[in-house]
Inverse folding.
């Protein structure tokens, strides 16, 4: 059985420009969808984690000395409890801090390459047949 990369190369040899066109179209649709999702504050990191595509691990320092269990203070704790923290949307933070949503969409698109290749492999033969029937390309 061929690996995904080998099947992709074989597909490009057989279909040529049609295969490249399909792959670039799938990539453009992926980048567009990711860009819209990131601009609408969808937490892309948690979605990728749900489908098993990876996890971004960061270590956060303690925000205040009250969070340190080793620190013993004789001061009474403040009576009003602080409001509960909102869940952190790391995607929004990265989009704001690392050059924008488009750059983040490109990085996510790069990570989704193993998903885009099978889509390209599945879509290229029917699209090539359709274009051949319409006499837009030579028969493959």
């Amino acid at each position: 059985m061929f690996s995904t990369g080998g099947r992709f190369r074989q597909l490009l040899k057989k279909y040529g420009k049609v295969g490249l066109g399909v792959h670039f179209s799938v990539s453009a649709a992926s980048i567009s969808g990711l860009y819209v999702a990131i601009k609408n504050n969808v937490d892309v990191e948690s979605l990728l984690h749900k489908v098993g595509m990876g996890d971004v691990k960061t270590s956060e320092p303690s925000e205040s000395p009250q969070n340190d269990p080793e620190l013993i203070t004789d001061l009474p704790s403040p009576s009003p409890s602080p409001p509960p923290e909102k869940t952190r949307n790391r995607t929004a933070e990265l989009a704001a801090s690392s050059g924008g949503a488009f750059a983040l969409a490109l990085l996510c698109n790069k990570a989704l390459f193993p998903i885009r290749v099978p889509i390209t492999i599945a879509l290229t033969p029917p699209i090539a047949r359709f274009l051949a029937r319409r006499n837009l390309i030579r028969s493959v």
